[in-house]
Design a protein that fits this description.
Layout (H helix, E strand, L loop, with lengths): L1 H9 L11 H6 L4 E7 L4 E3 L12 E12 L6 E17 L4 E5 L11 E4 L4 E6 L7 H8 L4 E6 L13 E7 L2 E6 L3 E7 L10 E3 L9 E3 L3 E2 L2 E7 L8 E6 L2 E8 L2 E9 L5 E8 L8 E8 L2 E2 L1 E6 L5 E8 L1 E8 L3 E8 L6 E10 L2 E6 L11 E5 L4 E6 L5 E4 L5 E4 L11 E4 L10 E4 L6 E4 L2 E13 L2 E14 L4 E6 L3 E2 L1 E8 L8 E9 L8 E7 L6
């Protein structure tokens, strides 16, 4: 019950309630029966159209188990049962129906008990984002199925299992119910409320120093920042990510308006977001690096320019990042996670006709995609990389180390827990992988480097209370600081150098955590904007 209440608090709220179609509860109600004929070629069950079943309905094959006794009186309360297989109705006849045995099911036997849709998996997919109130109604109406959660896109669903899965999808004023492998089962009309435009929120000008101003404070755990013209209309959108969701908004001067949001669910943990128009259609996709427990589960999102964000690709075992490369400009890159955290060569990645495509990237190996910058010219490129100790290391193309900084840069509190094969039998078999923050190239030999200041002592607990953002230049012999940003009170999660307020000039925008979640709050973050123009 507590889990359900917590989930409801996380769901977006519609303007008016949407009512579940009455017929749905009847169409998916449990119907018990028995197997009357079972051969390898054919299974017959004792239910027909008079019982309300149709072609495509699923029946669980139930095997009785041990009796359940009352601990005090000793009375038999019932008998446990387990699902040993599944039948799909293939034809409805008078007095009986034909069914097929689904893969991985135990062979049905004559007299075996069956029950329609009992213990089938089910998910609710709210494509428009305005039908969240249907989910608790579905849970109440269909308690016999195993509900896996509320989702905004099929691309972010948990991995499939052998158990049949029902997909309840709200879209275009309809509610469709599909079985994941066999297709459409039912369709119902819905009257979905129109999305309500978010109010304009005025930002709070900072008073401590000229040239700086703050965006509105937000609640949550901040994870990423991006600034890009997503829909090609000439205006820049601001994309912020928390650990489980994406928000798209726009600054007009110093006023902010939220335009769209997407909740990916508690199982998805966002690590980074990069915007890139990989298919050259004039609209940028959002390439979201995320993990689900110990593995990467990245995805690609697309905004419709209004209030909806949809996933167009998912379940990607890729680290994703857009980098500026000498001679090539902005390039979308990816790297696998395998036995090593950053495994194999870095490749170019794109979305073409709904399919993920990769191509070789002209980068030396070995390199890690995160904490990486490429400087110089196409004929004489250099690599800058944050190492495991958060020092900046400059290398020539042949791998020769040209400099290792004395100063400490980088620092991240976001992590992926990974099983450590070297410590599998010890109590320390899980280690935390902290992806390095971005190094953003500004000019051919200049780049921005974040520096989070705080505790790095413990591998499983990092806490940064101050931060700054430096502009560094490679002068041909060493890294030289061109400017050192003011020290901010808070953990620097991410940053961008772009026209955040749509005034025709670039600003340096930093995403700062000002309070962490705890017993008294959900955490807070804000965007701090520095209007100082950087030399490019």
């Amino acid at each position: 019950m507590l889990r359900t209440l917590l989930l409801l608090l996380l769901l977006p709220v519609a303007a008016t309630a949407t009512v579940l179609p009455e017929k749905l509860a009847t169409d998916f109600a449990p119907i018990d029966g028995v197997v009357v004929l079972a051969t390898p070629e054919q299974v017959l069950i004792d239910r027909d159209a008079a019982s309300g079943i149709v072609v495509g309905d699923l029946f669980a094959i139930l095997t009785p188990g041990a009796p359940i006794f009352h601990p005090t009186s000793g009375a038999i309360l019932g008998t446990s049962q387990s699902v040993t297989g599944w039948l799909r109705v293939a034809g409805v006849r008078s007095g009986y129906s034909e069914a097929t045995l689904l893969p991985a099911s135990a062979m049905a036997t004559i007299g075996a008990k069956i029950s329609r849709f009992t213990e089938a998996e089910a998910v609710f997919i709210d494509t428009p984002g305005s039908a969240a109130d249907l989910y608790p109604q579905l849970q109440s109406a269909l308690p016999q199925v195993r509900w896996l959660g509320y989702f905004r896109s099929p691309a972010v669903l948990p991995a499939s299992s052998q158990t049949p899965r029902l997909l309840f999808t709200a879209a275009d004023n309809t509610l469709e119910v599909r079985e994941e492998r066999s297709g459409l089962l039912r369709r119902y009309p819905l009257a979905l409320p129109a999305p309500v435009a978010a109010p304009v929120v005025k930002t709070i000008p900072a008073t401590s120093s000229s040239g700086y101003w703050n965006g509105p404070a937000q609640k949550g755990v901040a994870r990423a920042l991006e600034i890009a013209d997503l829909d090609g209309d000439g205006r820049f959108e601001t994309i912020t990510a928390t650990h489980h969701g994406i928000e798209i908004g726009r600054f007009s001067g110093k006023e902010y308006q939220k335009l769209a949001e997407l909740n990916l669910g508690l199982s998805h943990n966002i690590l980074a977001v990069d915007a890139f128009d990989s298919d050259s259609d004039g609209k940028m996709e959002l390439w979201v690096t995320a993990n689900r427990e110990t593995e990467l589960d990245s995805l690609v999102l697309l905004w419709d320019g209004k209030s909806h964000i949809k996933a167009v690709a998912g379940h990607l075992n890729w680290w994703l990042r857009a980098l500026t490369l000498p001679g090539a400009g902005r390039t979308l890159l990816a790297q696998k996670m395998g036995a090593e955290d950053f495994s194999g060569a870095i490749t170019q990645i794109a979305l073409h006709n709904g399919q993920i495509k990769t191509a070789p990237a002209a980068l030396p190996a070995p390199l890690s995609l995160y904490g990486l910058a490429r400087l110089g010219t196409p004929d004489n490129p250099l690599t800058v990389q944050l190492n495991a100790y958060d020092n900046l290391v400059v290398r020539a193309e042949n791998g020769e180390v040209l400099q290792e900084s004395d100063g400490i840069y980088g620092g991240s509190e976001a992590f992926i827990p990974r099983l450590d094969p070297l410590r599998h039998s010890s109590n320390d078999e899980v280690r935390y992988v902290y992806p390095a923050p971005r190094l953003e190239v500004v000019g051919s030999n200049t780049f921005l480097a974040p520096a989070n200041i705080g505790s790095r002592t413990f591998k499983r607990h990092r806490l940064f209370k101050e931060s700054r953002l430096d502009l560094l230049q490679w002068d041909g012999a060493q890294l030289r600081p061109l400017s050192s940003g003011r020290v901010e009170s808070g953990y620097l999660v991410d940053y961008r150098y772009a026209d955040i307020d749509n005034d025709g000039r670039k600003e340096l925008a930093s995403l700062l955590v000002t309070a962490r979640p705890g017993l008294t709050g959900k955490g807070r973050y804000l965007i701090v904007v520095n209007e100082t123009v950087l030399p490019e």
